[in-house]
Amino acid sequence: MSAETDAPQKPRRTRRPARRDAAKDADAPTMTEGPPKAPRLVADPVLARQALSTMWQIRRFEEAVDDLFARGLMHGTMHLSIGQEAVATGACLALTREDLITSTHRGHGHCIAKGAQLDRMMAELLAKQTGYCRGRGGSMHIADVETGNLGANGIVGGGIPIAAGAALAQKLRNTTNVAVSFFGDGATNEGAFHEGLNLAAVWGLPAIFICENNGYGMSMSSSLSMAVPRVSDRAVGYGMPGVTVDGNDVQEVFDAVTEAVARARAGEGPTLIEAITYRHKGHSKSDQNLYRTREEIEKWRAADPIGRFEATLLDAGTLGQADVHAVRAEVLEAIRAAIKAGNAAAPSRADELLSGVYAPVQE
Fold first, then answer.
1. Per the domain annotation, does 353 fall within a domain?
2. Band of residue 363 on the pLDDT scale cut at 50, 70, 90
3. C or N: which end of the chain has fewer Cβ atoms within 10 Å?
4. The whole model's pTM is what?
5. Measured distance CA(56)–CA(113) in Å, rounded
6. Which domain holds residue 258?
7. Residue 227 class from Cβ within 10 Å (0-12 exposed, 13-18 middle, 19+ buried)?
8. Residue 45's domain is classified under what CATH number?
9. How many domains does the chain have?
């Protein structure tokens, strides 16, 4: 996708065989024939409400974080995924609590979608003792091992080999758990991407690699940083299926990940999923967005995943307007409670900094 297109283009979902001659090669892995179908969210009010609530939690949490940074009440840096909520929500909806994920520097959404507590997340970003990492990790290193989140990563592509290792562990332990790695389009040009996917394919690991292609690696358009039209085209080189989906459509993401998870649990190896999406905000809090036009941003705002999903549910009669308003109100109250709890918590203590170091400094 060229991030410089005049308007958001809804990508056609594509399935790519592991090799160009896969039809002639009986051993070449392909997407599972007759895979289990993900439930239609518009047909299930409970799942629909859950998905909508998760997307709103991600949106409101990040809006609150943006405001706290702007007011000087939160420090360090942050990378927002506002506009990308459908990817984390749809993907994690297809997972169990026991499945594992690795995240990125833009990882608040993954953490929330995997089931993290909002108050502990907020406390972490506020450098409080009650945070997930006792206030020491902050925005780019948040983790919640209890829900299977092995952590965000400040290194571009750094979570990919970790996910491959986690998937290897599951295979050696003979579990049916899978490991999912989230990363951006910029990470697909890192060595860790190529090494991690190759290893996962060679060893047939239960891994799903999800590229959140928001069109830019920092300020570099993805259309200028790779010679193939789709990130999913790269799956061919590793002998695994690759699929491109509309990352602003929570159902499409849910469908693709459900299918990939089924393949992985059945011992059929990894899958590369490219989700086409867009971040409304800059790369980080210091990004002035000089490489994007206001028109481009506004056109993608019109394709906002939350608004689209709400309209779909209302049109189908799955949820009523009162239900939608109730979800919004509940989420807003939860975010306010998280901020209040975070502010009231004790600050992280500098004199305990070395207590989490595996090999303490010798005096």
1. no
2. low
3. C
4. 0.87
5. 11
6. 14-345
7. exposed
8. 3.40.50.970
9. 1
